[in-house]
Fold Triosephosphate isomerase.
Amino acid sequence: MRKHIVAGNWKMNNDLPQTELLLTELLKQNQTSDAEVMIAPTFTNLWQAFESLRQESIEVIAQNMHFAENGAYTGEISASMLKSIGIKTVILGHSERRAYYNETDESLAKKVDAALANDMRTIFCFGEELQDRKSENHEAVVESQIKNALFHLEADAFKNIVLAYEPVWAIGTGETASPEQAQDMHAFIRKTLADKYGNDVADSVSILYGGSVKPGNAKEIFGKPDVDGGLIGGASLNAEDFYAIVNAF
Ligand code: PGA
């Protein structure tokens, strides 16, 4: 049985007081679904969030990390630094990182390796741009993103990999992939995994959908058989909206 996961990506939002406020609001919410719940605050607030949620069922995760263990990489954070404050999961390859910070499939492959070497779980993001979908190239784009960054891994590594399909045209735009578009792509992703690693691996990997998931559309999207959860941006900044999504399972 695949895990249901709902992860909130706070991006570059919330200073320390705002983080404390949102954590307080999150802890007032009731969870009625079986989903694993995660939040990804910005680096400066990870420790505070981790401490506040130590006894709770919300996992605090990181939005990014560097592939090196340490060294002359001004402004960067390593897997072991994250681990040393209790963080066990990292989001890698978000489209904003790819677009604004030149992250490539090749550099992401190194980051995935670094996360795995540190026994960290990765939520690996990928997705096509609008022109790829218009030219019906979306499956080829997604296939190459997955192959280039992940297909050097052994099957066993996928125990620590969660995939997040996020069509770039749906992120922060209010435009969502239809539940059918999400399902079609998730089924394609699972088949791509099955072709390389076999059905056992393909059937065990959780595939999240991300891109303008809201309380009003989560149920329909999560109702699709190959959609195992969501990576939530904007709506994760409001505790009630976020839990409405968590409870959409
Ligand atoms: P959004 O962001 O929910 O605001 O569209 C999703 C994401 O970037 O992960």
About this structure: Strands lie at 5-9, 36-40, 58-60, 89-92, 121-126, 161-165, 207-210, 229-232. The pocket of 2-phosphoglycolic acid is lined by residues 9, 166, 171-172, 210-213, 231-235 (CB under 6 Å).
